[in-house]
Every structure is written in C-alpha cells, then in structure tokens.
Design brief:
single chain; three-stranded mixed beta sheet; about 15% helix; globular
C-alpha cells in the first residue's frame, strides 16, 4: 500500500453521518474515492458545489463540473451548484462541520502552513485562509516527511502561516495525532512502526498514551 493510499483510507474514517465536509486541494480531494457509495454526508467545494461525488472517469467527465482543484468530479443525489459568494457564505457562517487540508508544515501548537514556500511561485492562499479558521473541525492530511526525508511535523512552523492554532488532528502515513494543550498526542500508529521510529521522524516532541497504541494500515 502506498503512503497516499494509507492516508486516504484512514482519513475516510473521519467522516461521520450528516457531516458537511470541505476537502482542500491536494490529497484531500481524493478522499471521496475511498468513501462507500452510501455514505451519509455532503462534500462541499468552495467553487460552488455541495454534494461532490468521486472523481469522474473519462467517459463521465463534464467540462463544467470540477472541484476547487480543477479535477473532474461526479455529483451525488441531492447535490446542488451555486456561485462562490454563496459557497463562502457557508464557510464564514460556520456551516462546514469538517475540513481536510494538506500541509507543507504543521506544528505542535496546531499552526498550519500550506500555501507558500518563499522563492517559489504560489497562486495565493485561496479559501484555505477562511476554511482553516471557520470550519468546526480541521484535519491535516500529509506525508510525515518531505521528499528529502525531513520532518513536516515541527515544533514551530517556519513557512508563512495559513492560520494559527487551527488544526485539531493530523493524519500522516505514519500516525494519527491530536493537537492538545500539552502537545501532540499520538492516537494511532502505522503498522510495523515503533514509537521510537515515529519520534525519530518527527521534530515535535510526541506524547504517547500509557495504554497500547492502536495500529492502522
């Protein structure tokens, strides 16, 4: 199983019945492909859709039907489409139960950096700025280390922040961690990985429960 698939399979378990969910650009937009066909929830896209379905196959693709990342998508029964002003009104009024965003960095205080690497071209902060502050719950989906093997879970973010103290949970290919007043509490660990190995891959100091850790694939 790839790192991406492990993250997405675990992330899909976070979606509860009746939720309105926003999925950010990157890994999060692939979560619908891992949900059961009968899941009870509505996926929101800030470009103006409520009720997004899985990624469209080639024969299903419609040029006018894309998510916020530009992927061709399908619609679920009961879906609706509207303009971006209505979409952002939903966000600003706190109508999003759960938001999943990707990250360049996230730290033990729940600070999130996911939009800008100095010196590299960026399209702008986009809807992440408001989603990270207004969603009722924010989960970050990210590989645990970058392509050079450097930790992405830090003591303090070094890149420009998307928002401070906004993250509730972090799901990586190595662990599920909650942001708490005392630091990052490890709730689950990937199979065949020890707590010592996980800490070696993490800059922030991790807190491990006194009871045995749950494992996930």
């Amino acid at each position: 199983m790839s790192k991406t698939e492990r993250i997405l399979r675990r992330a899909a378990k976070e979606i509860e019945p009746g939720f309105v969910i926003n999925l950010g650009i990157g890994l999060p937009t692939l979560v619908p492909d891992y949900l059961p066909d009968d899941f009870d929830g509505m996926i929101h896209s800030e470009n103006g859709i409520l009720g997004c379905g899985p990624t469209a196959k080639r024969a299903q693709a419609r040029p006018s039907l894309i998510d916020s990342a530009g992927h061709y998508i399908t619609l679920r029964t009961g879906s609706s489409c509207f303009d971006s002003s209505v979409s952002f009104s939903m966000i600003r009024r706190g109508r999003i139960d759960l938001c999943m965003l990707g990250a360049f960095e996230v730290d033990e205080l729940g600070n999130l950096a996911n939009w800008k690497i100095p010196g590299k071209l960026s399209p702008g902060i986009g809807g992440a700025m408001e989603l990270s502050q207004k969603a009722k719950r924010l989960i970050v989906l990210s590989t645990h280390t970058d392509k050079h093997g450097r930790p992405k879970i830090l003591e303090r973010c070094r890149l420009p922040l998307t928002a401070p103290a906004c993250v509730n949970r972090i799901i990586t290919d190595e662990a599920v961690m909650d942001v708490t007043p005392d630091g990052l509490l490890v709730q689950e660990i990937a199979e065949n990985l020890s707590p010592e190995e996980l800490q070696n891959h993490t800059e922030a100091k991790l807190i491990f429960p006194e009871t045995s850790l749950r494992c996930y694939q």
